[in-house]
Specification:
The chain contains no helices and 21 strands. It is an all-beta fold.
């Protein structure tokens, strides 16, 4: 799969779809945040093998969002990751794919910095800080809907050598939190969340080894009708 980073516009009156194409295998598709992205596998009619999937953003614009789509090779178990960003598209000119590289990931960096007189004057950056981090995924995927009093045990997975590995909790490198503690609270070490009151909160797990490297999940608490 050639695409490792995709930018999609937010939900629109006329939806924009992107076909993510795999090769040399049959794939099972999954993704982290079901509240912002819709993924529809496409199957070969003769072999029932999926080598591609259609991607569409389903959330209205509310600031930049990101999620990850996983293509798991059914014969080898190898996982290929594609990061999907959802944001308003204002200018299309690509100089580099990423300044944050997932562990075992690949990226080609070609950086050009323009001053205010672009394109007539160009200044080139002389220092680049490259961050290497483990890709993280949560199970169950976002969003999670549950009732007051419910307890949910999250599973944290990291991708190493293109294969998923469950992180044993408590982990010295991962810290959990809930942004709205009046709706739910979470065990900071074990990733166990308790639904307290009606509302919506965001569960956050952060890799303490890398500043700002985190995975999030939307948690919705409702009551019986």
């Amino acid at each position: 799969m050639a695409d490792v980073n995709i930018l999609l516009p937010p939900k629109m009156t006329h939806p924009v779809e992107y076909r993510l194409q795999g090769s040399d295998g049959c794939f099972k598709w999954s993704w982290d945040h079901h509240d912002i992205l819709w993924v529809l596998p496409e199957y070969n009619s003769s072999s029932h093998c999926s080598m591609s999937a259609r991607l569409r953003s389903i959330a209205p614009y509310g600031g930049r969002k990101e999620t990850v789509v996983y293509a798991t090779d059914l014969s080898t178990g190898m996982i290929i990751r594609c990061k999907v960003y959802i944001d308003m598209i204002s200018r299309i000119q690509i100089f580099h794919n990423s300044i944050k590289l997932d562990l075992d990931g690949l990226a080609t960096l070609r950086v050009r910095a323009f001053d205010s007189e672009e394109p007539s004057v160009e200044h080139f950056a002389d220092k680049i800080v490259l961050t290497v981090a483990e890709a993280m995924s949560l199970d169950p995927p976002s969003p999670v809907n549950d009732l007051i009093g419910a307890v949910v045990h999250y599973t944290l997975k990291v991708i190493r050598s293109n294969s998923p590995h469950i992180v044993t909790l408590p982990s010295p490198f991962h810290q959990w939190s809930a942004l709205n503690s009046s709706v739910a609270n979470v065990d900071r070490a074990m990733g166990i969340i308790h639904a307290l009151n009606l509302g919506i909160t965001t569960l956050v797990v952060e890799d303490t080894r890398v500043v700002g490297h985190m995975q999030i999940s939307s948690f919705h608490v409702a009551s019986l009708p």
